[in-house]
Structure formats: C-alpha cells, structure tokens
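Sat 14:20. Reprocessing the chain from the morning session after the first attempt stalled halfway. Input below, unchanged.
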Amino acid sequence: MLNEREIESCYLGQFIPVHYHHNMLMDNNRMHSFKAAIDYAVKPGMKVLELGGGTGVLSWFASAKASQVYCVEFNPDMVKEARKFLAMNPGGEKVEVIHADAFEYLPPEPVDVVICEMIHVAMLREKQVEVIEAFKRRYVQKFGPKLPVFIPEAVLMAAQPLQQEYDFEGFYAPIVQFQETGVVHSGTRELAQPAVYSLIDFAQPNELSYAWEGKFLIERDGTLSAMRFVTKNILAVVQERNTTIDWLNHYMALPLAKPVQVRQGDVLQVSFAYRAGGSIPSLEASIKAEVVFEAAQQAVPAFV
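Finished this time. Tokens:
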C-alpha cells in the first residue's frame, strides 16, 4: 500500500512525462548554466551522484570528467529513457542509471559532488530541500561528516509586489502566471523593489518551512494585485573569480485574494508562510498585504 509521500509523488515532479523533459532540454539558460557549473565543480576522476536524473543529461555533463556517475531516477519510464539516451552519447557508459527513490538511496561509496535539480519556483511542489536534507543525514551516518559539494550550492528567494493584468479578451481570471525573466511583460507593473526572504545554503542544515513578514516602499501608484516570487539558483561559487554560476527560474506571479490600492511613498507590509515542497495554493492562500503607512497627500491649492 502506498504511503502519503508516494501518493503525492504521482502528482509532482517525480512522474512528469517525457515530453515535459523536452521543455527542460530546450531551456538554453538552464542547460548552459548547469553545464558550466558541473564543468567547474567536477574535477577529473571524481565520483558524482545525481538525485532525480530525468533524461540523464546532467549526469552526462558530469561524465566528461568524472570516473563514475550514479544517476538515480524514481520514474521507471524515465529510467528507460535515460538509459536509451545515454547509450547514444559518448561517455554515457560511465553513468549508471539506478531505479531507486532519492529519499532512500545512498551510493555504494563516498562521492565528491551531488547534483539535484528538483527545483520549482519558491521551492514549491518539487522536493529539492527535503530530498537533500534527508540525503545529508543518511550520508553522514554512513560515510562520516565530510559532505560532498552540492549543485546547486544555494538558493536565493525573493518576493516583489506587482500590478498584474488579469483581463483575457474581456474575461477576468486572476490566475497564477509564470513569466520569462529578462522580458518586458506588458500586463505587469512592478510596484516596488524585490525583497529577499530566504537564503538556502545546502552545505548547512535547512528548515523545511518559510514564514516571512516584510515591508516594501511603493515606488509608483497602482493596484497591488499579485506577488511575484523570484528564485535564483546559485549553481556554483567560483571562488578564484569571486563570482557565481547562476540559473534564474521563471518568475511566478500569484494573485492576491483582494487587490490593494497603493500610492508612491506608501509602506506596504506583506506576510506569507508555506512549506518547502508544498502546493502553490497553500502559499497563495497565506499571502496577506496591507498599507501600514500612507504617503502624505499632495497639497491642493485653494481657489478663492
């Protein structure tokens, strides 16, 4: 009989169909950033583990330098696909695709690098944080306190107030929207600068829940109708160049239950709470926003 986590996994990233993986392979920002980070982190002769391997592409990147790559995938259909794809690519024989649950698997030997890309905006839906925290506990018990390097190394999460258009050819539908980064969206108006609400360092212990309350200085008049959530994945820290290799998820804009009128100079207070791996509606339902300081009204000249 399936337990609660196994039942839930059927509706989350563990069983997304193969055609969805095509979208990830076509995402040039994702592919280029991961390839660069893996090329930097994996040194010749290293042992690498990937948790949640999908098509096996990230494991294949690692195989260019690694002596052994363990690629763990829970979805039996994707196990077959990964083995097929890796057999088509030079060096793929160095990747061992293992049908196992990432929540339970441990490699037969210590590894130098762990790759895990179970990432959704705001760490929702997918089990990235929970999988890595559980892995670290098991790994330390078996191999001792020295942890491998994780890709990504860290995640920075921020929130930003928006005036978001929800008119679709006259049909009003406030609905979650995913937006490309680096693109101007005609129906989106940023009302304040983003505020960081969490930094996850995978080399350190991490909580599985986030509760945040913060203030924004409103920069322009408008109607606050949504909160944008920003997720910046720090895939690798390049210390010798004092820089990072990053991958920015698509933005996620969640509609507010009740829009709020704001003016330039207002101070907006926002709060929300959710659990890593939780549902999008759970975060959406928790968002509260109110103006706690109103900008002074401009003086209106009197006429006599």
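The chain has a mean pLDDT of 92.
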